[in-house]
Amino acid sequence: MKAAFSTWNARIAPVFDTARQIHIVEVESGRVVGEADEVLPGDLPAQQVMRLAELGVGTLVCGAISWPVRGMVTASGIQVIPFVTGTFSEVMQAWLDGTVGGVHFAMPGCRGRGGGRGQRPEALGRGWRGERHAGGVVGTCVCPICWHREPHQHSVSCAQRLCPVCGAPMIRDA
User: Which backbone phi and psi does 140 adopt, to 5 degrees?
Assistant: First the structure.
């Protein structure tokens, strides 16, 4: 199993979306068998996600991460452990111990839930990034892999829709 930790100055980078340095840790039977530093391409988030997939990363441990980028990472089959803070060595050890998602390593305001300050507004039944009208929320669903766009459908979460071009789960356009 390979995990990637977004790093900056020997700490977990505060924002994954702008981080370029990752430290890859490969674990077999509970022990570290390999480590490497990598630089992510800086042009598009999709390129960063493709690079993580090319490296065979199964888990990404990071600081803050935007919902669209997080959607791309999870759509690529990579587990995300977000909103983590601390020194790289402490966080890596906590990940190995299975305790990295707890309150001790949570960014301020996150309380260790891995979802920022709370649930997304759409999870609470309110409109999100779109106008309300009698028929529901107006907006667009976008594929985080191939960037195909389709109109949002009332009462159907974008995450429940599969991209007709590449088959990846779609996300709400930011």
Answer: -135, 140
